[in-house]
Design goal:
mainly alpha; 17 helices; about 65% helix; about 0% strand
Amino acid sequence: MEAEDPPLFADRPEWADVIPLEQYEGVSPLAPIFYTSEYKDATNYFRGIVKTGEKSPRVLDLTEHIIRQNPAHYSAWQYRYKTLVALNAPLDVELRLMDELAIKFLKTYQVWHHRRLLVQQTKDPGPELEFIARALQIDTKNYHTWSYRQWILAHFNDDALWSRELEFVESMLEYDLRNNSAWHHRFFMVFQSGVRKGDEDRDGVVRRELTFVKTKLATAPNNASAWNYLRGVLDHSKWPYSNLESFVAPYSVPQTALQDVLSEDVVDLENPLPSPVAQLPCVAAVEFMADIYESKGGDDIMKATELWKSLAHQHDTMRRKYWEYRIKEALQNVR
């Protein structure tokens, strides 16, 4: 048996003292939004209590009713938070409600912002990482969830919070190594959030990260997220791309040209080769090699232009105009 819809606020005796305010009072809009009667009724009463400045338990009921219908109603969220503070309401109860609403409305910014305000008040970030991990199981790439996790870590900056973060992000990449959000989070925690205990040797950290991303690229050579991470590590550390020429070169040639290398007895553990079933050449590797040649200058500029031509006419025709621009610009600089 289906539950009956709750009565409109206009039909509730306990709301009889509130004067509802119509959204378009005295106005005849050209293209009015056709709200449901339930939503229109609730927001009319919401404008009424905002006008009087009322902050009471029934206001919490009203704002929850509106938010469940429209979780992006920023004014309802803001007034709800002010009411919670004014009533000195138990925020642990509110956080339990947010556990439900954040999962239900994962892609709504306002629900995460409200949660941030609550945790700033409770000053207890401990349970948040576990909750975020659960939310990421539902949507592993949700921008708002990852942003909230970064805020928790950076705002409280507690060693206990950071202690297992590398392990967490590695588990996310193990689940999906093409998860660009997880790669971004790894870069944030390793290079953009201070130096953690045990990571004082920054050159050692760079080498660790290069080893990590190389291993992932050997598994999935055409993973754009991993190539972007590789570039990010080098750019941030101001290491020249040419340092990785030995690693990148095998990924930039067809599989047939790679067989001789794969059959050699010598195995370079620092530069893992792509698997025999990898689809090569890898577009990102060809681009990387072209950037190496361009940075060297001189006669290597022509090597770069040949690689860009192969991208424009064979491997990455979607960006043909871009590669032709790179060729034109490089040749102009040579003259």
